[in-house]
Amino acid sequence: MFTAITRQPASGPANSMQALSADSRSVIDALTAHIALIDGEGEIVAVNLAWRRFYDGNGCCLPNYGVGCNYLALLAPLAALSDNPAAPEDSRIAGAVVAGLRSVLTGTSERFQLEYPCHAPQERRWFLLTVTPFAPGHRIRAVVSHENITALKLAEERTRQQAQRVAGSFASTVESIALAIEKRDPYTAGHQRQVAALASEIGRVMGLDPERRFALHLGASIHDIGKISVPAEILNRPGLLSEPEYAIIRQHAQTGHEILRGIDFPWPIADMVRQHHERLDGSGYPQGLRADEICLEARIIAVADVFDAIISHRPYRPGRALQEALDELQRGRGTIYDAAVVDAGLHFFAEVTPEWHRQHRENIPAIDPLAHF
Known about the structure:
With 373 residues, the chain is an alpha+beta fold. It has helices at residues 2-6, 22-30, 49-57, 71-79, 89-105, 150-184, 186-206, 210-221, 232-235, 243-250, 252-260, 269-275, 296-311, 322-332, 339-349, 354-362, and strands at 34-39, 44-47, 112-117, 126-133, 140-148.
């Protein structure tokens, strides 16, 4: 976009840094950002040394480094195309810059900023454009600055790639654990897949950021890992369990925490697993936590867990009606289940179809960190 500006034909009289005092010229020339000073009509009154050096080094062709040209007029042809969805990125950038510069010149905005790419044939480059108002009553009305942020953008890209690799490693670990559970108990594996999918959707409705949703999905994918220590004849027994048998079942949340706490996850996965049977009123287990003592992710998993447990087929009973699950969540809203989580869940659960349920239970895709970072 910067290159596009400097390659247009000149349209106004030549001016120079003489519009400023010697001290002001020295200060502006010492800055590394490419700076243009703009009058109230959008005309370029003066440019600094960094602007001129960039101009000379990039084959730009405006006379007098663009001084005397109208900044808005130079961008107008590109900006005119910005409303077209098929327009190139340069057009959308130009449209945004024209609108931002005008807002500063007219006083409706105190500042405008935009990051944009300005790639050269041999290198990738990014700049941060900043428009700020100049002193009132002066011919110069705005300062336009183009700061090279390429090093920052490349560092961000490296950090993002590293985060994706780390997340991928953790996802592989979780998938391996889930596979071990599946080999022993296919029902629990299908239930965990379903709860992970539901919990992730609740997180989406609640506006959780992508990384937190990724961690939530990981935790939900193995929330019942502790059941690996429960005898299969108890897990799959039809009919009511005895009190000692139920006590064994209740140990799975704490057992899951003990299995996972040695893994150095950057997210509270072990806490999610231990707390997913806690309830707001303290009636849950294993710690009897209340309200905000329970992490949000565990509160989300709890709602998804209850919903899926009610509507899903189990070895000892058929699945119950969707409305029964919705009624249970409504009854417990704000007392045993987090109200905001229930509201988000009801918003999504009402749209769940049997086909969606089957696909996510039987054939949920592998955890993909690239979809979250």
